[in-house]
Design brief:
Layout lengths: L1 E3 L6 E3 L6 H16 L4 H9 L1 H7 L14 E2 L14 H6 L12 H5 L9 E6 L5 E4 H5 L5 E8 L4 E11 H8 L7 E6 L19 E5 H5 L4 E6 L2 E2 L9 E3 L12 E7 L6 H5 L23 E4 L10 E2 L7 H4 L13
Helix pairs in contact: 1-2
Length: about 325
């Protein structure tokens, strides 16, 4: 069944069938319809460049979901040359507590998530608050492929090719007010489609936050895809944050609100265990987690019996691009 958005007039496919195959077919139809509508120029252009993207990008499409190619980014630091994590590992080894606490739970349970229609509300200290349908967000800026390191606070890492654009493109459009010093990111918390919402693990909805200069840093990505395709549900579909120099839990998934505030927002893991998860949560090999060292990491896909751990890089290897934001700060105190 197709329905028409009251906000934008775009057509969205909606189905009561929530099997993984049905989700795949929904997304293919959604992008097909989008390409023929008002957003057609952008999406049709991306589709037309699909073959070029396959030859110029660092990774071939896995062929699991609808294509969402991005042009190669020229942003300093945006394309690491390290070996990519296999798509199967990146899409089946996840932390997404709304769908369970085991690494395999999200891939097994997230098929219940309904990603269309989808709206992200921008609110708080901005001149232009409003609600953005997903198709409106897709049109704000050209898609880029960003190949980022991902470092989990648990001591493992991946290398993932994301597709999206700098969050700053959206921020500039909504025109933050002078008192907007922080940005909060609120994720979906729907107990009907997210079976572990309501558990006592965290305070729902999951909320994360950045300082304004962190949010405006061009490396901070509003991501709609990975590996040249739309995001799998278990990886934060249909839109998520990616902040590559911070531990992975800072990159909030399945966003529904972006709120601009004067005060530092209370975040999910900081509320759950402030002594373990600070607001900044920058990757720092010199500041250990209270229960384990952060000096080294195991790269998923390279974790055989005799595989050596990698040394963790300051700011996850992005010090040249982001280190100046923390000049003069005590990074042990502001962990």
């Amino acid at each position: 069944m197709l329905i028409k958005s009251s906000n934008t007039g775009f057509i969205h496919p909606v189905s009561s069938d929530i099997t993984p195959q049905a989700i795949y077919e929904q997304r293919r139809e959604w992008l097909r319809v989008m390409a023929g509508g008002v957003a057609g120029a952008a999406l049709a252009g991306w589709a037309g460049r699909d073959a070029l993207a396959q030859t110029s990008a660092a990774v071939a499409r896995p062929g699991k979901l609808a294509a969402l190619p991005g042009g190669r980014s020229n942003l300093p630091g945006a394309v690491t040359m390290e070996k990519l994590t296999d798509y199967k590992d990146a899409s089946t080894y996840n932390n997404f507590y709304e769908f369970g606490t085991d690494k395999s739970d999200p891939a097994r349970n997230a098929h219940t998530l309904k990603v269309s229609p989808w709206t992200v509300e921008v609110e708080g200290a901005v001149r232009k608050p409003g609600k953005y349908a997903l198709e409106d967000l897709l049109k704000i800026s050209a898609m880029e492929e960003r190949i980022y390191r991902l470092r989990c606070v648990e001591g493992w890492s991946m290398v993932i090719p994301w597709v999206g654009y700098s969050l700053s493109e959206l921020i500039k459009r909504v025109e933050p007010l002078g008192n907007a010093r922080f940005v909060a990111f609120v994720t979906l918390a729907d107990p009907k489609t997210m079976p572990y919402v309501g558990s006592r693990v965290l305070d729902w909805p999951y909320v994360e936050g950045l300082r304004m200069d962190e949010a405006m840093n061009p490396l901070t990505l509003l991501a709609f895809g990975m590996y040249g395709e739309v995001l799998p549900n278990q990886n934060g579909a249909p839109v998520r944050l990616v902040v590559p120099w911070k531990y992975g839990f800072k990159s909030a998934k399945s966003l529904v609100k972006i709120r601009f505030t004067e005060k530092e927002p209370a975040t999910a893991w900081n509320k759950a265990a402030a002594q373990e998860y600070g607001f900044y949560s920058n990757v720092n090999p010199n500041v250990d987690h209270p229960r384990w060292s952060q000096a080294t990491e195991r790269r998923i896909g390279e974790d055989g019996l005799f595989a050596k751990k990698r040394k963790t890089l300051m700011f996850n290897g992005y010090e040249a691009q982001v280190g100046q934001m923390y000049a003069g700060m005590d990074l042990k105190k502001n962990y």
